[in-house]
Amino acid sequence: MARDTTDFRPIEGVDELVDHLAEGNKPRDKWRIGTEHEKFPFYVDGNAPVPYGGERGIRAILEGMQSKLGWDPIIDDGRIIGLVEPTGQGAISLEPGGQFELSGAPLETIHQTCREGNAHLAQVREIAEPMGIRFLGLGGSPKWSLAETPRMPKSRYEIMTRYMPKVGTKGLDMMYRTCTIQVNLDFESEADMRRKMQVSLKLQPLSTALFANSPFTESRPNGLQSWRGDIWRDTDNQRSGLLEFCFSPDFGFADYVEWALDVPMYFVIRDGHYHDMTHITFRQFMAGAARNEVPDGLPTMGDWANHLSTLFPDVRLKRFLEMRGADGGPWRRICALPAFWVGLLYDEAALDAAEALTASWTYKEVLAMRNAVPELGIAAPFRNATLREIARDVLAISRTGLKNRGKKNRDGYDETSFLNTLDEVVARGTTSAEEMLSAYHTRWGGSIEPVFMEYAY
């Protein structure tokens, strides 16, 4: 999230919180695709991490991008920490370890979102390459220890950094040493949200498997295909993971609100200052627990929107749905991830087929799949098959959905070609992580350094 929300409307009751989510309902002709991707900046000389400050640091890249694009700066305690397009059509932000993120504009087609990603990569290369900086498209930092990883001067991250070790063993790794590709998608009603939430929760482990791309940690194989996927198993299980209550046949906005109310907060913002609120839940906040702790210590709608942004389930509900399962990856994956989910969820026949395929999948089965995927990737078992076999069926459904959408580019091609990189994974039977591991043990000569050349933007 590029910029934390300031909305000073007071909260009168829980119904307003439910209404906030329901306001995301949109007619189908207003559905859009918002794609986000993160990447690791590094110095070409020595493959070293890039700090915030200095003439060749993250701040200098942001300032260069601001000059090039004319976007508005996002300032935190006097320091530039991101950029936002003046009309809200996209933003650039920093993750805790300097991961550089594009939060794309809400667009109508995968063709547009792919052009947007390619344009961003070209722009940031133009600014960064004269500084000797490139960007790495992986799901996990392959070389630097946590101590070697820079820390960005962003107030919410200071609070999270103090809090994470209290609630899990891998939260700091999540913050500082992972990257993702995500897509944000719309719904037209509570019933439509329910269908999409349930289908996408059940298929999120498959997405993790298909995009598995983080097999190295601190210059060695880590025994996993998606280290990032494993990290999410013990980051903060109060606010992340696979949400069992969402599997209920009558799941709705109010159920998500009730869950979110009982998750500890991270912060509230008053007069530009971030106040640590990790000791109370949002429900306690609404009951007046912070009345004497912070100025204007009663909750606002801005506080609620910010709280929703600090929840990390596999699929996150805000006024849209966020698909959160995929590792970061090469540029083709930036286009493939939204294509995969748009094909499944934005065509009625495809959604019907995906729902039918997964209808009998139980929470325990999906959780077991989720636990197996970080190590086994598409070879993870599911019932009497493997995820490779499941993937064939799911990709066929997604391809049909994209074909039915009929969104063609100027050359007459539809969106189905963006799935080709995932078709290759299934045809080979090996993930990107396994391909990297094979290279490490053969032509890379037991070194991870070539990854900075072969997987760089």
Could you please describe the fold and organization of this structure?
Strands 1, 2, 3, 4, 5, 6, 7, 8, 15 and 16 form a 10-stranded antiparallel sheet that branches. The protein has helices at 14-22, 58-69, 110-128, 155-167, 171-177, 190-210, 227-231, 253-261, 282-286, 301-309, 331-345, 348-358, 363-376, 387-405, 420-428, 432-441, 451-454; strands spanning 33-43, 48-49, 72-76, 79-84, 91-94, 100-103, 133-136, 180-185, 216-217, 220-221, 240-241, 267-270, 273-276, 312-313, 315-317, 321-327, 381-382, 385-386. Helix 1 packs across helix 8 and helix 2 crosses helix 3. It has 17 helices and 18 strands. It has 457 residues and is of the alpha+beta class. Belongs to the glutamate--cysteine ligase type 2 family. EgtA subfamily. Belongs to the carboxylate-amine ligase family. Glutamate--cysteine ligase type 2 subfamily. It is an enzyme of class 6 (ligase). It catalyses: L-cysteine + L-glutamate + ATP = gamma-L-glutamyl-L-cysteine + ADP + phosphate + H(+).
